[in-house]
Amino acid sequence: MSEDIQLQMFKCQRCGKCLINCPVLAVTEWDSFSPRARVILSLAKELGHFGETKRFLQIIFSCTTCRICENVCPAGVKVVDIILHTREQIVKELSKK
Ligand code: SF4
Ligand code: SF4
Asked: 1-18, pLDDT tens digit by residue?
């Protein structure tokens, strides 16, 4: 994991301000489909806490990459960069199977 992406994951303060305007969360109404959850789950994956469940893949790949969450994040977390990194790791791992 690059140091920059790792830093971004740890910068998240779990404040929830990014939950307000995420279009995917608005449709699903599940907190697990929020920007915050995608950051937390990405970090958990990086630390090896779990593998690719169907639900995890839905959460990570349903992000539209609109960056609305980044515009309201007080900590300046690059949420989309984190999600794209996680997607890249998933594709790499699945392509080896
Ligand atoms: S607004 Fe930023 S710091 Fe707050 S939970 Fe969302 S990503 Fe984390
Ligand atoms: S970039 Fe993804 S997580 Fe952020 S608001 Fe858009 S859909 Fe939601």
From this structure: 567 998 999 999 999 999
Cβ of 82 below 6 Å from ligand 2 = no
Mean pLDDT of the chain: 94
pLDDT at 88 over 80: yes
For the domain covering 3-95, report its CATH number.
Answer: 1.10.1060.10
The predicted model gives 15-39 an average pLDDT of 97
Structural tokens at position 54:
């169907």
Q: Which atom of ligand 2 lies nearest, measured to the CA of 21? A: 5
Name residues whose C-beta falls within 8 Å of residue 82's C-beta, 6 or more positions apart in sequence. 5, 8, 9, 38, 39, 42
Six-digit token string for 88: 């890249």
Domain boundaries, the chain: 3-95
